[in-house]
Design goal:
Elements lengths: L20 H11 L10 H9 L5 H10 L4 H8 L3 H15 L12 H9 L4 H8 L3 H10 L5 E4 L13 E5 L14 E4 L10 H16 L4 E5 L14 E4 L4 H11 L3 E3 L5 H4 L2 H6 L9 H8 L1 H11 L6 E3 L6 H8 L3 E5 L9 E3 L2 H14 L5 E5 L5 E10 L2 E13 L9 E3 L6 H17 L4 E10 L2 E8 L6 H7 L4 H9 L17 E7 L20 E7 L2 H11 L10 E5 L2 H16 L3 E4 L1 H9 L4 E3 L11 H6 L5 E4 L11 H11 L3 E3 L2 H18 L4 H8 L4 H6 L8
Parallel strand pairs: 2-5, 3-4, 3-6, 4-5, 18-19, 18-21, 19-20, 21-22
Antiparallel strand pairs: 1-2, 7-10, 8-9, 8-10, 11-12, 11-14, 12-13, 13-16, 14-15, 16-17
Length: about 725
């Protein structure tokens, strides 16, 4: 559901600072990274204009391209005609490019008019049918270049002295002189699913490290919600888009020493190769090596060359290759596009129809890069490896484990650090493989690798030559700023590994995801290989059980209280794994409700459970009815393949839990851990007085965990 309404469903914001108004509107349209499907009929145009959505600016542009007048669009949208007039002028200017046969036909005045109206080089290039760099060369030859202006933070009462800058074509002179030899740090862009405050923490940590060693730090970002766009954090802040054109403009104007692309997430990392191709000094790992990791085909070939194990894979360029590969490796398989954010268009396919659809979606999301299909290994543990390297040698690293099995995106998964349930030999294999890949890619700076392990057989999933969203978590858990180390390595300063005890910690950290399914009407609250969470929390505990409960509570997960009902509805494998956990719930005083198949199995295993009916049966009491009546405190429901297509009983139960504010667990391993943690908490506080129990439940600060300056039993 893309319609805009109350309550809000946005996960972030972008902002443009420039003049005139047309340029602001055109730029903010680009900053959002918005796109819209092909609109075929006039009726569809009218429908889209009447309904506020996240693509509305683009829908208005389509309408003007089709000849709608300002009055017609105003009648359909009720948007003030002043704004529509500016958008209409943008459309008219775009049409002036349609008759050009070559960019050389653009003179200085038309080029300046287009740039003042906010047209990017790539937009002009697309309309004329030439490469972006051809437009850039023509523009610079004509002397059409942006000026650097300060944002007036004093409302013109006094001369502004801040380093809050932007670039505009509505000026001829710069407000400030170039800094020369500064280091540019590219920020994270707008918050969205897959790129949030964790990457801003990395960017800010990088900037603070640069300034602490006397380097001029120049930040480029356009997210008004970030710390990195606080102009006191850097020597210079360019409130600008993270595009190839604008980063080149700033780099050339500032005569910068180099650019750091590896601390802002996927958006700046995708600029590494284009910047390198234009002669920019990219600090840290070489862009050619970044490409070898980001390009799924090249990375898989590298692993084969190194003799490093990975799931069976193939690059399927057309549909004719699909049946042979699927027959050879067997379903399920996973489709993995290259250079994408948060697993966009990454899918697990269980049959041929799903696979063909997944391949088409992946090609649409990443048309310029290869799509790799790999065998998906079920019931494997996923392992996270975050590290800092210098010239191919690892300085420091952290190994964390996912509670969920492989198949849940790392941004949605529950992470435990230090890992609690890994074989010693598995840890050794992960370290050996990571060292070989770091050396092969000559990594300098932060990087993240993901592995899967089953029966002590370790395989590589992927490698990201940038900071991952877990860097703040591992840095705070180990009390060592991994980004500070990485920054020193990237700018060529001497750096020594921090002394970190990887296993001998007196506490455990757990990172849990925060979801916004209540704001996404009709969405199925299930997890998979494409990221869904909009935030995350991390908590410490004396053991994994305490840390997990605290992390869940920090996400506003409402813990059920003894006496409340817990609804359990899972598949055949889940029933076997949950039987003991359900017995623990009964022992703690919870009432267990279960749907038909689950109920029969639990009763057979001697668990005291009451029957509720699936929605499709029409029986009473029904699972959805009990949720609606407020008689359930927790739902444990594991989706199956059938649940993920169409409206199933599982979907109706999960959606009812979200809509009626009932806590929901959709992963069996998380459910088992939750039940064990509740049982552990109850056994620990049993016999304590009310005051002692309250003191035991009181949250503790990070410093208390670091120093262990409190008393309490460990797991």
């Amino acid at each position: 559901e893309r319609r805009r309404a109350s309550p809000p469903a946005a996960s972030g914001a972008a902002m443009a600072a420039m003049s005139p108004a047309e340029a602001r509107l055109e730029r903010v349209k680009r900053l959002r990274g918005a796109s819209t499907e092909r609109i075929v009929t006039a009726e569809e145009v009218d429908r889209r204009l009447r309904t506020p959505s996240d693509t509305r600016l683009l829908d208005i542009a389509v309408a003007f391209e089709r000849g709608y007048t300002v009055d017609q669009v105003h009648a359909l949208t009720k948007i003030d005609a002043w704004f529509l007039d500016k958008l209409h002028r943008i459309s008219q200017l775009g049409r002036t490019l349609e008759g050009l046969a070559a960019v050389a036909q653009l003179g200085q005045r038309p080029m300046r008019v287009l740039k003042r109206a906010g047209f990017s080089d790539v937009q002009i290039a697309t309309r004329v049918g030439v490469p972006e760099m051809a437009v850039r060369r023509r523009r610079k030859a004509l002397g059409v270049e942006p000026a650097v202006k300060q944002i007036d933070t004093l409302a013109a009462e006094f001369p502004a002295q801040t380093n809050y800058l932007y670039m505009t074509y509505a000026g001829d002179t710069d407000d400030v002189a170039p800094s020369r030899e500064g280091v540019m740090v590219l920020g994270c862009g707008p918050y969205c699913i897959g790129s949030s405050v964790e990457f801003d923490w990395c960017a800010v940590s990088c900037v603070r490290t640069l300034r602490s060693v006397g380097r001029t730090a120049i930040v480029v970002n356009y997210n008004p919600e970030t710390v990195s766009t606080d102009y006191d954090e850097s020597d210079r802040l360019y409130f600008e888009e993270l595009s190839l054109e604008r980063v080149l403009d700033i780099y050339e104007r500032e005569t910068a020493h180099g650019v750091i692309v590896s601390v802002g997430g996927q958006i700046p990392n995708n600029l590494a190769v284009p910047l390198y191709q234009q002669g920019v000094t990219v600090l840290g790992t070489a862009p050619t090596d970044i490409d070898r990791a980001e390009d799924r085909h090249k990375f898989s070939k590298l692993l084969d060359k190194l003799g490093v194990d990975q799931p069976t894979w193939g690059e399927l360029s057309d549909a004719s290759q699909v049946p042979e590969f699927a027959e050879r490796v067997g379903f399920p398989v996973i489709v993995r596009p290259s250079y994408v954010l948060s697993g966009a268009a990454m899918r697990v396919a269980s049959n041929m129809e799903q696979l063909l659809k997944c391949l088409q979606d992946a090609a649409d999301v990443s048309p310029e890069h290869p799509v790799v299909v790999s065998k998906f290994i079920q019931n494997a543990k996923e392992i996270e490896f975050d590290a800092v390297a210098r010239r191919g040698k690892i300085l420091n690293y952290a190994i964390s484990e996912h509670v969920e099995n492989a198949g849940v995106h790392s941004g949605d998964a529950t992470l435990v650090l230090p890992a609690q349930k890994l074989y010693v030999e598995t840890i050794r294999k992960v370290k050996r493989i990571s060292s070989r890949i770091a050396a092969a890619l000559n990594i300098t700076g932060p990087f993240n690798m993901q592995f899967m392990s089953k029966d002590n057989d370790v395989k590589v999933i992927e490698c990201n030559l940038r900071a991952s969203r877990t860097f703040p978590f591992v840095s705070k858990t180990f009390r060592t700023n991994f980004i500070g180390l990485a920054t020193r390595a990237m700018i060529g300063l001497p750096v020594q590994p921090a002394q970190i005890s990887l296993v001998d910690l007196d506490y455990v950290g757990v990172k849990a995801a925060q979801f916004s399914f209540t704001r996404l009407q009709g969405a199925d609250p299930t997890l998979g290989v494409e990221m869904m969470s909009t935030g995350e929390v991390a908590c410490f505990g004396q053991g994994v059980h305490e840390a997990y409960l605290r992390a869940l509570e920090a996400t506003r997960f409402r813990m059920p209280v003894p006496g409340e009902a817990v609804l359990v509805s899972v598949g055949s494998d889940g029933k076997k794994k949950l039987a003991e956990s359900c017995a623990q719930l009964v022992d703690l005083g919870y009432r267990v409700l279960a749907t038909e198949g689950t109920h029969a199995y639990l009763v057979e295993q001697g668990v005291d459970a009451s029957l509720v009916h699936r929605p499709s049966t029409g029986g009473e009491p029904s699972a959805v009815g009990e949720l609606q009546a407020g008689r359930i405190g927790l739902v444990i429901n594991e989706p199956n393949d059938k649940d993920r297509t169409g409206v199933s009983d599982g979907y109706l139960v999960r959606r009812a839990a979200v809509d009626f504010g009932v806590s929901l667990i959709t992963n069996i391993k998380c459910a088992v851990l939750l039940c064990a943690a509740l049982h552990k908490r109850a056994s620990t506080t049993r016999g304590l007085g009310a005051a002692a129990a309250a003191a035991a439940a009181e949250p503790k600060s990070m410093d208390e965990y670091y120093t262990q300056d409190f008393s309490g039993a460990k797991d």
